[in-house]
UniProtKB/TrEMBL annotation:
UniProt KW keywords: Coiled coil, DNA-binding
Coiled coil regions in record: 79-106
All residue ranges annotated as the HTH merR-type domain in the record: 1-69
Domain of life: Bacteria
Organism: Streptomyces virginiae (Streptomyces cinnamonensis)
Designated name of the protein: MerR family transcriptional regulator
CDD domains: HTH_MerR-like
Matches recorded under SUPFAM superfamilies: Putative DNA-binding domain
Gene3D superfamilies registered for this protein in UniProt: 1.10.1660.10
Length: 244
């Protein structure tokens, strides 16, 4: 058989066959006096096996291992590894599809690349125009992206997010935008914010907390002075409470 004929029999392209020759995967038969390669039935069987293995998802190096003689790996071993790899890819695809479903379900202008857990948490929160609430959402999104957040924490925060009384705390924080740092409203508001967080949240937070190096300073810089003082007191109380 010529190269075009064996390609037609096995169902591959002549270009693929030449590539297999080039990488040493398929022995190149001797040429006849007329210059054409003469392929045997044995070549066709070997080429068919290469095709089956590549269709299963094996790379050419893995196919070479399978086809090797005594030094080669067992086909069952390679296929087991391939199955495990495909399972991991399938799980990753399913997770990406879950996240995509969340984005598709969001309203116009609301789609964000959130984990399903955080998306479900934010969906429980009442709509508000509060700048402080918007900042909280941004901070949660950041922690979610860096892996600090988690399903256990989001579940613990669920009742808090759905509590309309929390909006009143955000409004009080918004009202401090132009206040001095000595404003008497600061200490009681900080205390109420800390008291509003369920104990389950602290149990779910990692032992090293969520205040990583540089994060506290960057967070406080986003607020007006009086608001930053509230947030500072809250963060210090959280750290102390988390140690308890």
């Amino acid at each position: 058989m010529r190269i075009g004929e064996i390609a037609a029999v096995v169902g591959v392209t002549t270009r693929a066959i030449r590539h297999y020759h080039h990488v040493g995967l398929l022995p190149e038969p001797e040429r006849r006096p007329n210059g054409y390669r003469a392929y045997s039935l044995r070549d066709a069987v070997l080429l068919a096996r290469v095709r089956r293995l590549t269709e299963l998802g094996l790379g050419l190096d893995e196919v070479r291992d399978v086809l090797a003689d005594d030094a080669g790996r067992e086909l069952a071993e390679v296929l087991t590894e391939l199955d495990a790899d495909l399972a991991r890819q399938e799980a990753e695809i399913q997770e990406r599809r879950r996240r995509l479903a969340v984005l598709l379900a969001a309203g116009p202008g609301e789609a964000e690349p959130l984990s399903p857990g955080l998306a479900a948490l934010l969906a429980k929160a009442p709509r508000t125009d509060s700048p402080a609430a918007a900042k909280d959402r941004e901070h949660l999104t950041l922690l979610d992206a860096t892996g600090v957040g988690g399903q256990e924490i989001y579940a613990a925060l669920g009742p808090l997010a759905a509590d309309p009384a929390v909006l009143a705390l955000y409004v009080r924080l918004d009202e401090l935008a132009d206040a001095p740092v000595a404003d008497p409203r600061i200490p009681p508001l900080a205390a109420e914010l800390v008291a509003a967080v369920p104990d389950e949240v602290f149990a779910a937070v990692p032992t090293d907390g969520v205040v990583v190096a540089g994060f506290k300073e960057a967070l406080l810089a986003e607020y007006a002075p009086a608001q930053a003082e509230v947030v500072r007191l809250v963060m210090e109380a959280f750290i102390e409470r988390g140690r308890g």
